[in-house]
């Protein structure tokens, strides 16, 4: 599927290490968390994603459960936002609210905007991110092409690692925001029992990614 625009900010080794460390960090009491997250972690609340924060690295973090010290929490770090269009129609796209929203992502510090990028350019963003994650966790257990299970498009590569009793997934996923039309590029940490294997079939594996790992 063609992409009208892609805003993204590269993952750095420190941003990946910080995300991967969160489930094992000491928990912070609820009444102290807002001050701690702001002063110690450099987080700020954002409305780009509901109930999310921007990190010190200016990526957008959404979490379910306590983000620190909770092995059962889900952490979703968004470092890219794509606007897929099918078909690309210059009379219908280019001046609407979704383009404005992509511009808000691109306005974050350290983010860049690619206009009408080829699929290879979008894939390269994930390839570079995969290199950073692999430097921490080794090669992924599984690499497969995403499909409509994860979002409208672009259907980029999905990579899955194991980290103890957590899955770590680098993939595009549907943005549940306005119209559900945009696509996040995300790095997700999610509980994954050590005795649970990935399904053999690609479609079943992507269904697991959607339903269990990415939500």
Can you characterise this structure?
Strands 1, 2, 3, 4, 5, 6, 7, 8, 9 and 10 form a ten-stranded antiparallel beta sheet that branches. The two termini are 23 Å apart. The chain is 28% helix and 28% strand. It has 215 residues and is of the alpha+beta class. The chain is built from five helices and ten strands. The model has no long low-confidence stretch (mean pLDDT 88).
Give the helix/strand layout.
Blueprint: E1 3-8, H1 13-21, H2 30-39, E2 44-46, E3 52-54, E4 60-64, E5 74-84, H3 97-106, E6 112-115, H4 119-137, E7 142-145, E8 157-163, E9 166-174, E10 183-191, H5 202-213
Antiparallel strand pairs: 1-5, 1-6, 2-3, 3-4, 4-5, 5-10, 7-8, 8-9, 9-10
Describe the structure concisely.
The protein has 215 residues and is an alpha+beta fold. 28% of the residues lie in helices and 28% in strands. Strands 1, 2, 3, 4, 5, 6, 7, 8, 9 and 10 form a ten-stranded antiparallel β-sheet that branches.
């Amino acid at each position: 599927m063609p992409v009208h625009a892609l805003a993204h900010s590269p993952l750095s080794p420190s941003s990946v290490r910080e995300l991967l460390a969160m489930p094992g960090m000491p928990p912070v009491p609820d009444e102290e968390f807002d001050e701690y997250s702001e002063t110690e972690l450099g987080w700020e609340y954002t409305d780009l994603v509901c109930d999310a924060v921007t990190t010190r690295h200016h990526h957008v973090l959404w979490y379910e459960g306590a983000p620190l010290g909770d092995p059962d929490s889900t952490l979703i770090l968004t470092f890219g936002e794509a606007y897929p269009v099918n078909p690309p129609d210059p009379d219908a796209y280019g001046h609407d609210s979704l383009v404005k929203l992509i511009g808000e992502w691109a306005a974050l510090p350290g983010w860049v905007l690619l206009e009408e990028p080829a699929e290879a350019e979008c894939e390269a963003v994930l390839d570079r991110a995969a290199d950073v994650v692999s430097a921490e966790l080794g090669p992924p257990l599984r690499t497969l092409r995403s499909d409509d299970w994860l979002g409208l498009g672009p259907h980029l590569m999905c990579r899955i690692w194991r980290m103890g009793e957590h899955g770590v997934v680098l993939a595009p996923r549907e943005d549940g925001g306005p119209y559900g039309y945009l696509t996040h590029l995300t790095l997700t940490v999610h509980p994954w029992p050590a005795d649970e294997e990935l399904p053999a079939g690609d479609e079943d594996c992507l269904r697991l990614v959607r339903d269990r790992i990415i939500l």
